[in-house]
């Protein structure tokens, strides 16, 4: 027995002969969305976190390194590791105006290294392997130097073999090389710990907590500064369109609106890969048919309208890496076009039931289009019955094309919120290529 199985698809055959469902032959409407920034912009204020040190009064201290989750108990994504390093004035790297090398090994997921209160560098792990190694030259001075490392956990694992045993945080070893003594092991010396950020403790993301610190604005607004809180207020936009924040100008952190957590943002994480024209030939692989290479893994963050008040909504953001808050905007999402792809002979469970029960198959193949509420179909951008190519927003005709493909849709759909058209050759002016399984592709504008 022979089966027609399109590439990269799965078929269901209840009787082991007849396909009633195939993942590559699903006829449904698809939509293209447009994000429209809401005018007016946001007026931002900022508050920058101070870098803690090992001698602060609100720290815990012990010899050696602790695992992060056992310390934070998931009360925060953040745990500070802090220690002091004494450097003699006769160190060769000081005389030669060179820098020593700090190497830190961590179980993940991200790490920011500060030397004497100044950011020295940052590194993060990957999805497959969250472990990371920071290795960078650091500027030390004669006397006591304060090393403060902020370890960041990006959520907790919830699946995988023995995931409850997975670690996070700085577990070592930690070494400082380039000294007169060679390499100094800092792993087992005395370390101080502090859970979370000061802004978290003060609940800066809430209306009451946000008034507990002094914020700066205008020319003093922090730009591209790590560990900075930002806040702004805005009024709820009119209408019912879904809303989102465009965070493309930021790096990594968290967002709150009226005290409710929008979630973690990480636009600074760029999607790497080899994007190109999709080719379904050969075996499936996750590296095939990739899109949006060299773009943020996520740019838009949904804002539930149920969280909003008519006026004076508080937007608070904590930024780890540093970004440009003035590039953030609130946007409306609207459906600009709807498309339908209908394949002749597509499998149907209902048709199979009718055939097995001896009933005649009277099911009629139809193309359905529907615009969102308050919008109507204003134009038919494309329609082709035959062997059209492409996807929604990028269709094109082939040599097999029915010349009256547009007519039925222009007649039945223009000015309507929704419409349907029977998919039979007579509707489109006849069969453009007999003895060939055809499809219909249609694209309509909503306004």
Automatic annotation (TrEMBL):
Domain of life: Eukaryota
GO process terms (BP): carbohydrate metabolic process
InterPro entries cross-referenced by the UniProt entry: BetaGal_gal-bd, Galactose-bd-like_sf, GHD, Glycoside_Hdrlase_35, Lectin_gal-bd_dom, Lectin_gal-bd_sf
Enzyme Commission (EC) number: 3.2.1.23
Ranges in a coiled coil: none
A GO molecular-function annotation: carbohydrate binding
Residue ranges annotated for the SUEL-type lectin domain, each copy included: 366-447
Catalytic activity: Hydrolysis of terminal non-reducing beta-D-galactose residues in beta-D-galactosides
UniProt keyword annotation of Transmembrane helix present: no
GO annotation, cellular component aspect: plant-type cell wall
UniProt entry tagged with the keyword S-adenosyl-L-methionine: no
Entries under Gene3D superfamilies matching the protein: 2.60.120.740, Galactose-binding domain-like
Pfam family, one: SUEL_Lectin
This protein's UniProt keywords: Glycosidase, Hydrolase, Signal
Family of this protein: Belongs to the glycosyl hydrolase 35 family.
Annotated protein name in UniProt: beta-galactosidase
Organism: Solanum tuberosum
């Amino acid at each position: 027995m022979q089966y027609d199985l399109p590439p990269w698809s799965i078929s269901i055959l209840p009787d082991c002969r007849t396909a009633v469902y195939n993942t590559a032959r699903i006829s449904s409407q698809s939509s293209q969305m447009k994000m429209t920034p809401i005018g007016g912009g946001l007026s931002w204020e900022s508050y920058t976190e101070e870098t803690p040190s090992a001698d602060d009064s609100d720290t815990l201290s012990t010899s050696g390194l602790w695992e992060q989750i056992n310390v934070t108990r998931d009360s925060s994504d953040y745990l500070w590791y802090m220690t002091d390093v004494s450097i003699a004035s006769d160190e060769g790297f000081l005389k030669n105006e060179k820098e020593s090398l700090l190497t830190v090994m961590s179980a993940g997921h991200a790490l920011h290294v500060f030397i004497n209160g100044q950011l020295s560098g940052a590194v993060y792990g990957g999805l497959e392997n969250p472990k990371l190694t920071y290795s960078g030259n650091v500027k030390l001075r004669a006397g006591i130097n304060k090393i403060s490392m902020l370890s960041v956990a990006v959520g907790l694992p919830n699946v995988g073999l023995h995931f409850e045993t997975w670690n996070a945080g700085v577990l070592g070893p930690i070494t400082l090389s380039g000294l007169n003594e060679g390499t100094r092991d800092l792993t087992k010396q005395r370390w101080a710990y502090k859970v979370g950020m000061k802004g978290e403790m003060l609940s800066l993301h809430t209306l009451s907590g946000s008034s507990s610190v002094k914020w700066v604005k205008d020319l003093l607004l922090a730009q591209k500064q790590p560990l900075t809180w930002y806040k702004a207020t805005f009024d709820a936009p009119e209408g019912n369109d879904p809303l989102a924040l465009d965070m493309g100008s930021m790096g990594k952190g968290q967002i709150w609106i009226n005290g409710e957590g929008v979630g973690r943002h990480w636009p600074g994480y760029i999607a790497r890969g080899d994007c190109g024209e999709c080719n379904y030939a050969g075996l499936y692989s996750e590296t095939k048919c990739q899109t949006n290479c060299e773009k943020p893994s996520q740019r838009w963050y949904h804002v539930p309208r149920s969280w909003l008040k008519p006026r004076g909504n508080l937007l608070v953001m904590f930024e780890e890496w540093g970004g440009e808050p003035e590039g953030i905007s609130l946007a409306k999402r609207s459906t600009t076009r709807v498309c339908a792809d209908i394949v002749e002979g597509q499998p149907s469970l209902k048709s199979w039931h009718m055939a097995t029960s001896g009933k005649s198959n009277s099911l009629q193949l139809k193309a359905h289009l529907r615009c969102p509420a308050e919008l109507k179909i204003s134009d038919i951008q494309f329609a082709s019955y035959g062997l059209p190519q492409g996807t929604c927003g990028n269709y094109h005709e082939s040599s097999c094309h029915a010349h009256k493909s547009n007519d039925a849709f222009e007649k039945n759909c223009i000015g309507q919120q929704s419409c349907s058209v029977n998919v039979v050759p007579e509707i489109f002016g006849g069969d453009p290529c007999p003895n060939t399984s055809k499809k219909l592709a249609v694209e309509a504008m909503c306004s």
